[in-house]
Amino acid sequence: MTIKPDTSPLSTPASSETIALAEDLRQCIGSFVRNVRSEANTPTSAQNETLALIARDGPQSMAVLAQKRSVKHQSMRLVIAQLEKAGQITRQPNPDDARSHLIALTAAGENALTTARQARTDWIAAKIQTTLNTAERQSLRNAITILQKLGAPTDDH
């Protein structure tokens, strides 16, 4: 049996310059995401992330949703109640556990998710159109390629 060496990003100490760059990137992306959501007037992160999880992975129990979002069951219960009140999710019997329900997306939930995504895309497109010149747009395209490379899963996962 061959044991692979640890090649994860955390196995090699980062230089102070790289740490500063990483912190700037983290802050920039966080600010960008918050600003886009605010300016595009889309649902809260909690609601949107929950809808996106259900859309991507299908109906799930509240416990699984809470675990995937790294929140407490009580917090997830509040988000589910808001989404249920808005008619964006529904509860279905859980075939694996009669004591729980699966949370599923409704047509209204799918529509809300699609509408929010489109609103954010439209806002970003308008901002690119009115703010960036041709060279900056190309730089942005290059930066997206780099971010995709940074965000790609590592071979050891």
TrEMBL record:
Domain of life: Bacteria
SUPFAM superfamilies: Winged helix' DNA-binding domain (SSF46785)
Residues covered by the HTH marR-type domain: 11-149
PANTHER family in the record: CONSERVED PROTEIN (PTHR39515), HTH-TYPE TRANSCRIPTIONAL REGULATOR RV0880 (PTHR39515:SF2)
Protein name: MarR family transcriptional regulator
Species this chain originates from: Thalassospira marina
